[in-house]
Design brief:
alpha+beta, 63% helix, 11 helices, 7% strand, elongated
Length: 318
């Protein structure tokens, strides 16, 4: 029982300490993204704090089960430890994650998106053109901004254009996720797609919860797979191998559940899988039935591994 309470302590410490540390670094990152050369941005923005809070807590909820499995590897527990793991894991995936999505949608519904402004007096290069604003761009959405546009091609020219204020301006689009393309070039930010997107996973969780209980059960297949890693906590005799296996599998699971929505994979599924009668039928009751089947199948594998390991360990003790 003592180890079970220690697991509860590990659970809450992971969330509390992780939230504090994660919010600090992620808020600094967002503050950097929102910065514009020559413009002083406020240090604390309430809307950004809420945005950081929901994102960081969502990431931690996705990783709290592997953290508890790691605690199981470091300090083996008994039946009470296992029961407490099930309770905490079910509470995380069936209660806390949908509640987080509900409050995030409710609180950020009226959040105002601050207007993006590019300051005057800086040369901003994009492709073959360099832009120099003689006044702050997009400061007044109803006023055009006189801009010196330099074409850097061999036959290029220098022109003065009155550019209409727009949030779809090419310097805004190509500077994403930053507000200013100067910062993007400074940090040499690439446009490669992330192999893990926690915001994408949480968005699918919220969509599934709003569609109905069968769709929500389909999403919970991911939670079942993460929870089933407990069965492989002592797959090897060496704790280091078990810890490495846990990290690799956790990483692989979230990579697979992100790349499943990659445009190439999505196109393949639409052409060769989603058109099958079996998946058409399942698609009426859940999103992404193929992903659900894969998650459930792998979770059964880990559960069987855990049962076999438990049975053989008991047999050796006899």
């Amino acid at each position: 029982m003592k180890k079970a309470f220690r697991l509860v302590l590990t659970y809450f410490l992971f969330l509390v300490i992780g939230t504090a540390i994660g919010m600090f670094f992620y808020y600094v990152y967002l503050h950097l993204q929102a910065s514009v050369a020559g413009q002083q941005a406020p240090l604390f923005i309430k809307d950004d704090i809420f945005r950081v809070l929901f994102y960081v807590v969502g990431c931690l909820l996705l990783f709290v089960c592997p953290a508890m499995v790691y605690a199981r590897i470091s300090n083996k527990g008994g039946i009470a430890h296992f029961i407490m793991f099930i309770i905490l894991s079910c509470a995380t995936w069936a209660v806390l994650i949908p509640l987080l999505g509900h409050f995030e949608k409710k609180i950020t519904y009226n959040t105002k998106d601050s207007s993006k402004v590019l300051t005057e007096g800086y040369f901003r290069e994009n492709g073959d053109k360099v832009y120099y604003f003689t006044d702050d761009y997009n400061k007044n959405p109803y006023t055009d901004t006189p801009t010196i546009v330099i074409d850097t091609t061999p036959e290029g020219t220098v022109e003065i254009e009155n550019i209409k204020s727009s949030r779809d301006f090419i310097l805004f689009r190509d500077s994403a996720p930053y507000n200013d393309i100067l910062l993007k070039k400074t940090f040499n930010e690439s446009e490669k797609q992330s192999i893990i997107s926690f915001s994408l996973i949480m968005q699918h969780a919220q969509n599934a919860f709003e569609k109905g209980w069968t769709f929500w059960l389909g999403f919970l297949s991911l939670g079942l797979l993460i929870m089933s890693l407990y069965g492989a906590a002592d797959l090897f005799r060496w704790r280091l191998l078990n810890s490495g296996f846990l990290m690799v599998m956790t990483f692989g699971i979230y990579v697979a559940n992100t790349l499943y929505y990659h445009p190439v994979v999505t196109s393949f599924r639409r052409q060769h899988i989603n058109s099958k009668g079996f998946f058409i039928f399942l698609g009426k009751y859940m999103d992404d039935p193929l992903l659900v089947l894969v998650n459930v199948s792998l979770s059964l594998v880990f559960v069987i591994i855990g049962i076999v390991r438990f049975a053989t360990r008991k047999k050796r003790s006899l």
